[in-house]
Amino acid sequence: MRLSRAPRAVVTAVLLTAGAAATAVAAPVAGPVAALTAQVNAQPTGPDCLGTVHDSTDERTVKGDNAANEAMHVEQAQALAREGRTKPGQGVTVVVVDSGIAGYAGTAAVELPSGHGVAVAGIIAGPDQPEPAVQVGIAPSATLVDRRFYDSPQRQQETDVVPMAANLAQALGGIAAEREGGALGGRVVVVVPAQVPAAPELEAQVDRLVRSGVLLIAASGDRPAEGGFPDGYDGEAKKGEDAARLVWPAAHPKVIAVGVSTPGSRSTVLRSSAIDLAAPGTGAVSKARNGGWCVVGEPSTAWAAAQVAGVAALVWSMHPDEDADQLRTRLEQTASGNGEPSSPITGYGVVQPVEAIRRDVAEMGTERKEQIVPARPPRAQDDVLAGARHDAIWWGLGGGAALVVLLMLRPLLSRRT
């Protein structure tokens, strides 16, 4: 996550548990990981995005900096876009499939059962806080489209509508139909910051949506409360844990599944071999239901998915000729890892918008392949002395045998003389 092309370290610190982080972070941590650790630990302060209700007027401002955006060097990436005479996110549509995003761009309170979708939208394209000045949206010029499919992230009341596979399949099918009808524009990111079980209809609609040419991004999964989904994954992470096949739509191979890179997040997010990219997942400043600004606190793959969606929109606005597959390659091959999806927490690594904007992906991909190809053992060379050595061995054996015979005959010969 820096402007140079110096080698980037694999994000290993994210494997630490919260309890071990204090001692393990003392070990050397290089490059973007060190920056991420230092900056995200400097959390902004203010009302919690999910705790702020729509009629609250006393808590509307945040103090400090957007630590997550700083860790990803969003400001520098936005500056590159403006230097290229492009507004960050311009020409890109981001469809937010969540609990509703009404009011994310304004200052008026909105009536929504949950502020989850508003916070997601604010991370992607929310307006900056004017006083005190705090940067908010990653791609503020992107066009956001609201596709609400639930009311509450958790069942809190009998009337709540919680994330369900059938509801999500219906929502994604509707987006696919719009896309097939020529709506939503040429460059479309669809973000699903939610986790639901697998279902045949959901898989079919994800297939359909991906075929339409959108870039589909989803949360890889948070650790549930006791009795929540996925069943049996509450509490501490177990050895060999892998939720890759359980959490949808992140489980689909064509979906970018997003994990959390912040150290100490292991107790709140699931380990999954499906993870492709990662983002801080905490420390961001966003918008609340009361029209003010707020802080996303506890690490979540939902917030991380929103951050990757914002980065995708920002980068795509600078590379308008690329399709969704090419953009995905660009994001993965410029992430902070080693060019391989090696981590069950961060996949290819943390998204790096500056690198994604500036790097030549074809050139960079060649570099990484050359770096990670295992060295082959040297080929055995022809033994040019083999013939001479063979003759020498036999001459040596013959000479040795003759010497032994002479030594044995020496006493007999001496007596005769």
TrEMBL record:
<dbReference type="InterPro" id="IPR000209">
    <property type="entry name" value="Peptidase_S8/S53_dom"/>
</dbReference>
<keyword id="KW-0812">Transmembrane</keyword>
<keyword id="KW-0720">Serine protease</keyword>
<keyword id="KW-0732">Signal</keyword>
<feature type="transmembrane region" description="Helical">
    <location>
        <begin position="392"/>
        <end position="413"/>
    </location>
</feature>
<protein>
    <recommendedName>
        <fullName>Peptidase S8/S53 domain-containing protein</fullName>
    </recommendedName>
</protein>
<keyword id="KW-0645">Protease</keyword>
<comment type="similarity">
    <text>Belongs to the peptidase S8 family.</text>
</comment>
<dbReference type="Pfam" id="PF00082">
    <property type="entry name" value="Peptidase_S8"/>
</dbReference>
<feature type="signal peptide">
    <location>
        <begin position="1"/>
        <end position="26"/>
    </location>
</feature>
<dbReference type="GO" id="GO:0004252">
    <property type="term" value="F:serine-type endopeptidase activity"/>
</dbReference>
<keyword id="KW-0378">Hydrolase</keyword>
<dbReference type="InterPro" id="IPR050131">
    <property type="entry name" value="Peptidase_S8_subtilisin-like"/>
</dbReference>
<keyword id="KW-0472">Membrane</keyword>
<dbReference type="InterPro" id="IPR015500">
    <property type="entry name" value="Peptidase_S8_subtilisin-rel"/>
</dbReference>
<keyword id="KW-1133">Transmembrane helix</keyword>
<dbReference type="GO" id="GO:0006508">
    <property type="term" value="P:proteolysis"/>
</dbReference>
<feature type="domain" description="Peptidase S8/S53">
    <location>
        <begin position="114"/>
        <end position="349"/>
    </location>
</feature>
<dbReference type="InterPro" id="IPR036852">
    <property type="entry name" value="Peptidase_S8/S53_dom_sf"/>
</dbReference>
